[in-house]
User: Which sequence fits this backbone?
């Protein structure tokens, strides 16, 4: 009964420390990333609500990346805390077996392993996919937030804006618009034969979803190189047809896991539907295999981390050894995580690399466990 309470106490301490560190790391990293996302508002003209929701949906990606390192730190901190407060000595004197404590750490690591696996395979790809869809479907807050005074603005695909100045009434003076994609082809009569359009206006007013132009000219060049001019007193341009330069096609890390698995399993790339557009046509889907290896393989290294930290339970003679050993095992665990991150980048180059990436933690775990058990048994003999 007493031992169960001790195990419960240690488990609560580990998870309390784990979630505290994870929250701190996530908050710092998300703040930095959220600042970078401000370009969605400043440069691309999306609304504040779109920016906030997009930023929040990216939190899951940060959490997934920090889980292994957070678990490493939480284990070391809890073990050092128990040792510093002499709680470990009390536990040993009550007859608590160190091997059972090692097994407890390993069981906790399996819970963290499942947690990261769920995040990496399901939650994070879905969340990132929704964030990309949000950018793709969201409307612009105002065209005035996109157009910069006395500066060429290319926030839209194949459409460039230039405004010389803005007066006290909010009117735009001397407007130049270059349309290479025929987005505004409805302004000219022979739109089917036009290759590009240039619009010049003396003044204009920006609205939420449109740009009203006064006293200008529309120049269109057809495929034969002939330029046609159309003068106007007043016209308006709708910004809804404009496509932002922001990447709207989901990246591999934003693609559903099942879709990536189907991409790897299918032999003929021509069979892929529009939903499988992220499956590369060349290089034997190297990037897809790397992404899948990261999602399924990185969590497997977490149990190995728990075994490495368990070496801190071994009795050390002298204060110097006690002081330095926490840094030694942290460096070993951190080196393992860095190595896993490096190796996963080569997982897609060949079948052998992929197998080695998954086999490494599966081989290290029993080997480290045997060494640990042997050292703990030797400690009993002494």
Assistant:
């Amino acid at each position: 009964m007493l031992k169960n309470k001790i195990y419960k106490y240690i488990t609560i301490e580990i998870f309390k420390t784990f979630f505290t560190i994870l929250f701190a790391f996530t908050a710092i990293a998300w703040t930095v990333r959220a600042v970078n996302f401000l370009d969605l508002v400043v440069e691309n003209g999306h609304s504040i609500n779109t920016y906030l929701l997009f930023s929040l949906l990216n939190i899951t990606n940060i959490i997934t990346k920090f889980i292994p390192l957070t678990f490493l730190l939480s284990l070391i901190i809890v073990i050092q805390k128990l040792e510093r407060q002499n709680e470990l000595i009390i536990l040993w004197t009550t007859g608590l077996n160190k091997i059972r404590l090692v097994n407890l750490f390993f069981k906790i690591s399996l819970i963290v392993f499942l947690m990261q696996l769920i995040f990496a395979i399901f939650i994070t790809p879905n969340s990132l996919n929704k964030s990309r869809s949000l950018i793709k479907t969201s409307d612009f807050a105002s065209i005035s937030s996109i157009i910069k005074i006395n500066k060429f603005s290319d926030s839209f695909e194949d459409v460039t804006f230039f405004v010389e100045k803005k007066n006290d009434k909010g009117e735009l003076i001397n407007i130049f618009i270059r349309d290479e994609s025929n987005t505004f082809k409805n302004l000219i009569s022979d739109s089917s034969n036009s290759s590009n359009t240039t619009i010049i206006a003396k003044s204009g007013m920006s609205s939420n979803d449109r740009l009203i132009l006064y006293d200008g000219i529309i120049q269109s060049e057809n495929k034969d190189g002939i330029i046609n001019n159309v003068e106007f007193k007043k016209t308006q341009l709708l910004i809804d047809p404009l496509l932002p330069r922001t990447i709207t096609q989901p990246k591999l890390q934003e693609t559903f896991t099942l879709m990536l698995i189907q991409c790897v399993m299918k032999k003929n790339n021509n069979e892929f539907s529009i939903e499988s557009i992220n499956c590369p046509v060349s290089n034997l889907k190297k990037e897809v295999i790397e992404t899948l290896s990261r999602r399924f393989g990185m969590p497997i290294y977490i149990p190995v981390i728990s075994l490495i930290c368990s070496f801190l339970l071994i009795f050390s003679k002298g204060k110097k050894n006690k002081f330095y050993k926490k840094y030694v095992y942290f460096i070993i665990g951190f080196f393992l995580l860095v190595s896993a991150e490096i190796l996963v980048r080569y997982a897609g180059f060949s079948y052998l690399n992929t197998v080695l990436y998954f086999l490494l933690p599966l081989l290290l775990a029993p080997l480290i466990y045997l060494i640990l058990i042997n050292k703990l048994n030797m400690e009993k003999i002494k």
Summary: DSSP finds eleven helices and six strands in the chain. Confidence is low (pLDDT under 50) at residues 268-276. The first helix runs from residue 2 to 36. The first strand starts at residue 153 and ends at 156.
